[in-house]
Amino acid sequence: MEYIAFDAHKYYTLASVARPDGQVVREERIEHDRGALRQFLERCEPGSPVAVAQPEHCAPRTRVP
């Protein structure tokens, strides 16, 4: 299992992936292009928990199916 964190901004999202021991294995800036978050998540372990931080002044840019 991995722990995935997203810090959403207006035009991009900062993503971080860590192991259960806390070691960060990947950090990436993801532009808000169609399919970019899905492409990022396809490289993560299925079933891993995701945390999302979003500033209050930013409207959501993606829709969860």
What structural class is derived from the secondary structure elements?
mainly beta
Number of helices: 1
CATH architecture verdict: 2-Layer Sandwich
Give a count of the beta strands, DSSP E runs of length 2 or more: 4
Number of domains: 1
The poorly predicted ranges are: none
Distance between the termini: 23 Å
Please give the oligomerization state of what you see: single chain
Radius of gyration: 12 Å
Order of H and E elements: EEEHE
Please summarize the sheet with the most strands. Answer: 4 strands, mixed
CATH domain topology = Nucleotidyltransferase, domain 5
Short description:
With 65 residues, the protein is mainly beta. The chain is built from 1 helix and 4 strands, in the order E-E-E-H-E. The chain has one domain: Nucleotidyltransferase, domain 5.
Keywords:
1 helix; mainly beta; Nucleotidyltransferase, domain 5
What does this entry look like structurally?
The protein is built from one helix and four strands. The protein is mainly beta and 65 residues long. It has a single domain, classed as Nucleotidyltransferase, domain 5 (2-Layer Sandwich). The protein has a four-stranded mixed β-sheet with strand order 3-2-1-4, with helices on one face. The two termini are 23 Å apart.
